[in-house]
């Protein structure tokens, strides 16, 4: 039997990529049963497949998640931080598996997701690609090996000019991997950019630097800078499909799993 998937945030860049990848069977065993987004979008009522630039899906873009969510096996959510948190209580009530790629979530919104994970399987990740999740492992291992040896860590990220949050969710994943290796708490050491006269860089700090321009899909680099040498670990996405395919692999994996908060490392077995 196929896994019934609802795409939330279906009219966005990632939503369209998800629909296209489902319709073109980039991940086997999935069936699109719902496409949901905001009420004021021009594509409302149009066929979801045609909206995404692929073949007809036989269902239209709608605004009400309640029409399709309860009967789905999994909801794949790339909507917005307030939309994701706002839907959490309903998804908890239905017990539908939930794959969340939404970024920019604050502490209160993350708490709503945690509460849902007590009643449904939830996969939460700032980036769904295999490469980025492998990079997180490499960054953590590198930081652990260099701990106490005087290496400063900085995270640089570049994205398209339509991205709303900064630093990116992926940059924060990488920063968290670095602090895990160093034995620090990211909240205590995060520095978002620098301006003016901030003074000498403190030892216990991780800087985040965000670039926005054009149609950059996503570039991330973690710098480990020591005296006399610089180590850079990087990942470049050249197609949004890599994120969509990862999210759909997570959807296939999460369907039927026990209620718990999972990460892409769980999905990918890293």
CATH overall fold name of the largest domain: Rossmann fold
Q: Unreliable stretches, pLDDT < 50, 5 or more residues?
A: none
Integer average pLDDT: 96
Order of strands across the biggest sheet? 3-2-1-4-5-6-12
Amount of beta strand: 15-25%
Q: What's the domain count?
A: 2
Helix content: 25-40%
User: Cα-atom Rg, whole angstroms?
Assistant: 19 Å
Per the principal axes of the C-alpha atoms, what is the gross shape?
Answer: elongated
End-to-end separation: 27 Å
Tally of DSSP β-strands = 12
CATH class of the largest domain: Alpha Beta
Number of continuous helical runs: 9
- Secondary-structure-based class equals alpha/beta
Main β sheet profile: 7 strands, parallel
SSE string:
EHEHEEHEHEHEHHEEEEHEH
Structural commentary:
By secondary structure, the chain is of the alpha/beta class. The protein folds into 2 domains: 3-124 and 240-268, 3-Layer(aba) Sandwich (Rossmann fold), CATH 3.40.50.720; 130-237, Dihydrodipicolinate Reductase, domain 2, CATH 3.30.360. Helices cover 34% and strands 24% of the residues. The protein has 9 helices and 12 strands. The chain has helices at 13-23, 48-51, 81-94, 107-116, 130-146, 169-182, 186-189, 241-254, 264-268, and strands at 3-8, 30-36, 61-62, 74-77, 97-100, 121-124, 152-159, 190-192, 206-212, 218-226, 229-237, 260-262. Helix 1 (13-23) crosses helix 8, helix 3 runs parallel beside helix 4 and helix 5 packs parallel to helix 6 (169-182). The chain starts with a strand and ends with a helix. The model has no long low-confidence stretch (mean pLDDT 96). Catalyzes the conversion of 4-hydroxy-tetrahydrodipicolinate (HTPA) to tetrahydrodipicolinate. Belongs to the DapB family. Residues 3-128 form the Dihydrodipicolinate reductase N-terminal domain. Its EC number is 1.17.1.8.
């Amino acid at each position: 039997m196929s896994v019934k998937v609802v795409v939330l945030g279906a009219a966005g860049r990632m939503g369209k990529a998800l629909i296209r990848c489902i319709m073109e069977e980039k991940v086997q065993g999935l069936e699109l049963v719902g496409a949901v987004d905001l009420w004021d979008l021009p594509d409302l009522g149009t066929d979801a497949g045609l909206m995404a630039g692929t073949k007809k899906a036989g269902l239209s873009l709608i605004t009400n998640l309640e029409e399709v969510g309860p009967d789905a096996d999994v909801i794949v959510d790339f909507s917005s931080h307030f939309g994701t948190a706002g839907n959490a209580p309903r998804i908890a009530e239905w017990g539908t598996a939930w794959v969340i790629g939404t970024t920019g979530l604050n502490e209160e919104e993350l708490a709503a997701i945690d509460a849902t994970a007590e009643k449904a399987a939830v996969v939460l990740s700032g980036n769904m690609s295999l490469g980025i999740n492998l990079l997180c492992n490499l960054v953590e291992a590198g930081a652990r090996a260099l701990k106490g040896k005087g290496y400063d860590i900085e995270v640089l990220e570049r994205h398209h000019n339509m991205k709303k949050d900064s630093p990116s969710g992926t940059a924060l994943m990488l920063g968290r991997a670095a602090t895990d290796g160093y034995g620090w708490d990211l909240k205590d050491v995060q520095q978002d950019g620098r301006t003016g006269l901030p003074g000498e860089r403190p030892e216990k700090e991780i800087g985040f630097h965000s670039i926005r321009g054009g149609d950059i899909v996503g570039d991330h680099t973690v710098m480990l800078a020591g005296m006399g040498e610089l180590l850079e670990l990087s990942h470049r996405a050249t197609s949004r499909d890599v994120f969509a395919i990862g999210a759909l692999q997570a959807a296939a994996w999460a369907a039927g799993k026990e209620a718990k908060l999972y990460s892409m490392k769980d999905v990918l077995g890293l």
